[in-house]
Specification:
- The structure is a homodimer.
- By secondary structure, the first copy, chain A, is an alpha/beta fold.
- The first copy, chain A, has one domain: 3-Layer(aba) Sandwich (UDP-N-acetylmuramoyl-L-alanine:D-glutamate ligase).
- In chain A, the strands form two sheets. In chain A, strands 6-5-1-9-10-11-12-13-14 form a nine-stranded mixed beta sheet.
- At the A-B interface, strand 4 and helix 4 of A face strand 4 and helix 4 of B.
- Strand 4 of chain A pairs antiparallel with strand 4 of chain B, so a sheet runs across the interface.
Chain lengths: 334, 334
């Protein structure tokens, strides 16, 4: 195994978020389930956008957020995802590149627009996501740069990537390369409905391919179809090297065989928008892991990063994360 | 004078902001003067965008922000400004319309892109603005809907509108209609460099056309080329009906002939981004004025709105302003 040129290579649906405040009533009237990501087509996207309030556009995509987070921590991050050559696509490319993430995937040329996610943030800081996948459906195995995967310490995929058919093939190709090259494969289960759509395959992936699994409480319970967190915990610890289970204000649990860490959530004055908490937790954790930190410290880094992101609007840090982490150094000692 | 159908009609350069954190060094290296708006051409815009960090796109434009603010307060607001039919233009149209602002200006069809303002926000919360005017230069007298102006209690123009040649004609047309129809004309001086560019004309406007003038300390001192605030105050009080002079943390001064109000700034925990403070002050003030509130209360409404906007990123309120104002009712009593 040659020396790595990347710490984390993230692969996912390349999406620009359109974030808007919303009232509960708006969701109810449209039959939208709060806190859930659902896929919509172009026509529904147009209709919903016309109805929703003024927005703020920010480059997003779950795995892309994680790549940006790793970069902000000072890690070497790469990203594979498909945008179009339209304005949103250029914005996405600019933003992720300027965050220091290596992003070289060729753009879609079919004319399908860049994906967007219409995010409705309610007063309780929950985000309800409506994703038009657009150009993402054109990501395929040819977009997986084998050398990039082989050169990354960890290749991190979002469960959402399992939705578009061609991306699934890309996903399998990337995981196969991590095995061949002795690198780590990591998966985020993305959301409980995503797990519902792909449960059998996600279980198979977790058992045979995934070295580092990220899931929140709902997702891991959905994966094993059990009714409480502890049951899910007992299931998962036999099935992948490291499982990282996040539980919002209850903190997180990191488990590797018999080693287990129960990490508190970082104190947050006021939760403004939960968007991106899981993505940033993964960024902090993977940054630590690729630096060789012990698992407890990795978890605390994840919790700190997640705590920062939920205290304001949008899935990108507002602060200089490196300075933030330096200031928090005392919290990170073993 | 028939009954008004609008409280405030704002006219300005229709711009989408691209907001990004920046270090002081980035400004120094590029010779950018902190806190200033400067005009750039398309090529310079491309080059600067390529260099700046990941951004967040939010519909902006000084007068447009004010119109949105008036709408959020519950006032009836309209807007005239020129966008293109590109993605940014559609975003602008969506955002301002969904904020409840009447916006009916025909889009530019020349192919010139919608204006954007590259805003670099430094650690001290100052914003350095680089504006590519794009389609804004196509706003002309034909875009001024005479009925809309005649039906608005106040027509509010930003000084920036004096930069594009055709917009200047539109500006004069709008002011003339306010006179003919017995409505109020209001002007924001926008920024001290804008005043430098157009001092003689701004003085003439202030003396003969403007009923309600908005200016910050630097702008009003630049207008009269005097070295301290009090001198500027003595000049301006003879020259327009109402002058509203904002002074950042020193609060604001509202003057109408012999009547003078010295208003404290609203307490703010931490200033994150000064973008839009003046625009929101004007929104609060004009909302109050068109409700018939006394000038002191108008000033306190302006100060509250400005205080909200500077405590987070971007020029749009993150809170439900109406609820915020209700909560602050005690601060608004005469």
């Amino acid at each position: 195994m040659s020396e790595s040129s990347l710490d984390v290579l993230a692969i996912g649906n390349a999406i620009v978020d359109v974030i808007s405040r919303s009232e509960d009533q708006f969701l109810t009237q449209r039959g939208l389930d709060k806190g859930i990501m659902r896929l919509i087509d172009a026509a529904e996207g147009e209709a919903l956008y016309a109805d929703m309030g003024p927005g703020m556009e920010v480059s997003g995509g779950s795995a892309a957020n994680t790549a940006v987070g790793v970069g902000l921590f000072g890690g070497r991050a790469g990203y594979i995802g498909k945008v179009s050559e339209d304005e949103l696509g250029k914005t996405f490319r600019h933003d992720i590149s300027r965050a220091g993430v290596r992003f070289e995937t060729a753009p879609a040329v079919s004319g399908t627009p860049t994906a967007r996610c219409l995010i409705l943030v309610t007063e309780d800081a929950e985000r309800t996501m409506n994703t038009y996948l657009g150009a993402c459906v054109e990501l395929g195995p040819d977009d997986i740069d084998a050398e990039m995967v082989a050169a990354a310490q960890v290749t991190y995929l979002e469960g959402y990537l399992w939705d578009p058919e061609e991306a699934k093939k890309a996903f399998r190709k990337a995981f196969a390369i991590t095995k061949e090259s002795g690198r780590r494969a990591s998966l985020s289960l993305s959301d409980p409905f995503c797990v519902d759509r792909h449960r059998a395959e996600f279980r198979e992936l977790t058992e045979h391919y995934v070295d580092v699994l990220f899931a929140n409480e709902d997702e891991i319970m959905s994966l094993y179809e059990v009714g409480d967190f502890d049951q899910a915990l007992q299931h998962v610890r036999g099935h992948c090297e490291i499982a990282v289970l996040t539980r919002s204000e209850k903190g997180s649990v990191v488990v590797r065989g018999d080693e287990i860490h129960v990490i508190d959530a970082a104190p947050v004055e006021r939760i403004v928008d939960a968007t991106g908490a899981g993505d940033m937790y993964a960024a902090g954790f993977l940054y630590g892991l690729t630096r060789g930190f012990d698992l407890g410290r990795c978890g605390r880094l994840g919790a700190l990063a997640a705590g920062e992101i939920i205290s304001h609007f949008g899935a990108k840090p507002e602060i200089d994360v490196k300075a933030f982490i330096d200031q928090s150094a005392h919290a990170l000692q073993a």
